[in-house]
Fold these 3 entries.
Entry 1:
Amino acid sequence: MGIQERKEREKERRRQQIMVAAKRVFSEKGFSRATMEDIAQEAELSPGTLYLYFKNKEELYASLSLRILQYLLLRIEHVNALKPAGPDEKLKALMEAMYDVYEFDPLIIINMFHLQSSDTLKNLTPQLLDEIKDLIGKSMGSIVKIFRDGVAKGLFIDRHPVALADTFWSLFSGVILWMTSKKMISEGKDHLKETLVLAFDLFYRGIQVKATGGSD
């Protein structure tokens, strides 16, 4: 192994060390209360070292979302590649895939939803912002394709595929954010999976042409 390769490996190891520490801190304190100093202390590094790898807290927070976005795209593309499944079967598979994505890393996907609805994106480097936009764009594009095919084949109601995809995504994110908030104010059994299954089932029934008696 050459000197340059060892340096790159050490750099990546240190970067991962910082991200693991950041995940713990964000989990305990939340984004607004967490500081770069808190994360440096958790990682057992100096604050100055953190700034060698991440421009600010927002960039570190956003970097945690890349892994879940990559997994999301992988799962959605897998659903689209299913053969000989049609749009109807693919939509059912997509619903299952979305819950798998949530279970892959619940904390990070919740952070990702908060990230998309805040001003945090404005403080990212152009490169990181472009990477996030690219992953989200590709994922949404793959979801839109399922609805476009379903509308074209007369299986789904005649609505714009992008609007259907946005509604589906909003349903997914809304249920997760609400159930997460609910856990903070009310103790009891976690009904997230049951609620998400119900929400998806209602959505699925609602866009079926046969269930609505037509596309009007």
Note: Residues 211-216 have pLDDT under 50 and may be disordered.
Entry 2:
Amino acid sequence: MSDNTQLQEVICIVCPKGCHLKVSPVDFTVTGGSCEKGIDYGIAELKNPVRVLTSTVKVEGSDLIRCPVRTNGSIPKGKIMAAMEEINKVALKAPVRVGEVVIPDILGTGVDVIATRDI
């Protein structure tokens, strides 16, 4: 394993255990996990961290003024702020249905932003 001063600490979120992982950014060795999923998560978190994004968008023509939305997959963590800028531009017209695509292929990620509530 590489020099301990370079280890990155990551808390695994794959299962409820929340293992405290230490990952080497040099050779991607992982310690502190209790299963293979944690090892895979630790490596992925350093190489290409991704997140599911949740937010709300404006709705017109309804008593409710915001509709909850989320990505239907994970997007690169580095694109979260740019994705939020795109989401903030959206104004839907009621009615809106759960699963309705609000923004297809956000930022060319292959991931859609979908509605998560009927309005």
Note: The chain has two domains: 4-47, 54-115.
Entry 3:
Amino acid sequence: MQALETTTLRVSEIFFSLQGETSRVGLPTVFVRLTGCPLRCGYCDTAYAFTGGESISITMILEQVAQHQASYVTVTGGEPLAQKSCLVLLKALCDAGYSVSLETSGALDLFKVDSRVCKVMDIKTPGSGEVDKNLWSNLNYLTRQDEIKFVLTDEADYQWACEIMQAKQLNALCPILFSPVYASLEPATLAAWILRDKLPVRMQIQMHKLLWGEGPGR
């Protein structure tokens, strides 16, 4: 086991906010945003986390998280699993008693992620420009506590997501989230499609953007 005081991660930001997505929406949450991502989605809203950041030990990360006195922690990016020591951080947060979620593109192997972590896996649609990066074997590592997210740019993405859901029987794995790209696909339009087709999915809007707009610390 790696020593937490000497194991470091490059961190873009640590901040306290309301969870804006997933089934945990609205819950006060500490976000640990790690630096770096191997993908370049056309609608990415966290490109500032691709580079830079500060090298911080996991012990220091835990100390900063504890200052906010929250029960929930989300590890995000970028793509947090691009840094191998993210696995150590996830375990350490679980060991510390937090309810931990991981926001991941699904392009990197989930096999070694601590079983206590809620994995929110983003399946990349054609509209993202990164559909070829989907690592479909990751579906084998999802349980009912996890969630699959489709970020949709248009109706073509919506139809593609519906086909993937059916072909891979995703509802048998875990809850499914449909999210419209902010300022691109009208939420009401997506809602109408979901109701028309009676899809067994949860529609979500990025609540944090409705409250505070885009940018770091959101």
Note: The radius of gyration is 17 Å.
